[in-house]
Amino acid sequence: MSNNPFYKSIKELRNIYEKKEASVSEISNAFIQRIKNLNPKINAYLEVFEKESNSDAKKADSYINNGNKDILTGIIIGLKDLVDVKGKITSAGSKILEKNIAKSNSKITNDFIEQKSVILGKTNLVEFAFGTLGINTNTPTCRNPWDLEKVPGGSSSGSAAAVSAGLCTFAIGTDTGGSVRMPASLCGITGFKPSYGIVSRRGVLDLSWSMDHVGPMARSAEDCLEAMKVISGFDIGDKYSQNIKSNFSKINIPNREEISIAVPKNYFFEDIDPDIKKAILSAANKFDNLGYKVEEIEIPFVEEGRNINVGVLLPEAISIHKTYLNKYDKY
């Protein structure tokens, strides 16, 4: 088996399978063993699907051996525990849903099954995905793999920690006010929040229907793109899905000067670690040198963004959770 598959990219894993350097079953079993060794310290996963993942891996091997291959065939995935997998508990990190067994798969779960991916399990999160630090008193405390005494960020804490620690190739998170982007940043990986309605939320528990997004978390923008090729697109079964062009499989930028990249002048650089500021400006300069149009802009009302976000989120969350409020003692 290829040495250390835990930090391979999606394309690198595909290459391993195509060259018969390792089977999906071998790679999957290696990840399972790594989870057994490291998860007790990191608590990235709430539930590991060992039996099911072994079955998924065998199906992927058979699929490949028959001359087939898809973008995510044999790729190792973790799902935030808001995403339904039929017959499995979707707890949202809450005691009140600890017996909430999904009756069907989410749309994106079906996407991965159709691709012959390997779903390793459900990842940890802040209760009901409402929080930024990654702390949840109902679940084992999720740790930042870079420093176990530091928070991983939230609410998609387990997804970020799992990717960062090499416990999956990529994971799915959700983002209502930063819950993909913040833990990705704190754990040193890439988090992508797609535009609203580009990825179906059917079968994913809500926090705020106006602002919830489903997105990939991986170790590179390229891996996030590979995931988006599969999970993006209009879903007639999701009333929030947007029927617009979002074909991530046909991204082509013939003229870089036609692409504008904005660097905000106000708010974001007012209270920032100098090293982070340096890294952001360095990245902007690289884009500029590559021929992209980099512009400084001022964003009106941006300082009120968090207050507006919470102002929309809270009443929607209360509406979603109204059936649970009579059972507040179980929270």
Question: What are its keywords?
Answer:
six-stranded mixed beta sheet, 9 helices, globular, 8 strands, single chain, 331 residues, Amidase signature (AS) enzymes, alpha/beta, two-stranded parallel ribbon
- Rg, Cα atoms, Å: 20 Å
| Secondary-structure-derived class | alpha/beta
Write the CATH fold name.
Amidase signature (AS) enzymes
Element order: H for helix, E for strand: HHEHEHEHEHEEHEHEH
Count the DSSP helices: 9
Instruction: State which percent range the strand residues make up.
Output: 5-15%
> Order of strands side by side in the largest beta sheet?
1-3-2-4-6-5
CATH class: Alpha Beta
Low-pLDDT runs of 5+ residues are: none
Distance between the termini: 45 Å
What is the CATH homologous superfamily assignment?
Amidase signature (AS) domain
Helix content: 25-40%
Report the sheet with the most strands, covering strand number, pairing sense and barrel closure: 6 strands, mixed
Extended strand count? 8
Mean of the pLDDT scores? 95
Count of separate structural domains: 1
CATH architecture: Alpha-Beta Complex
Shape: globular
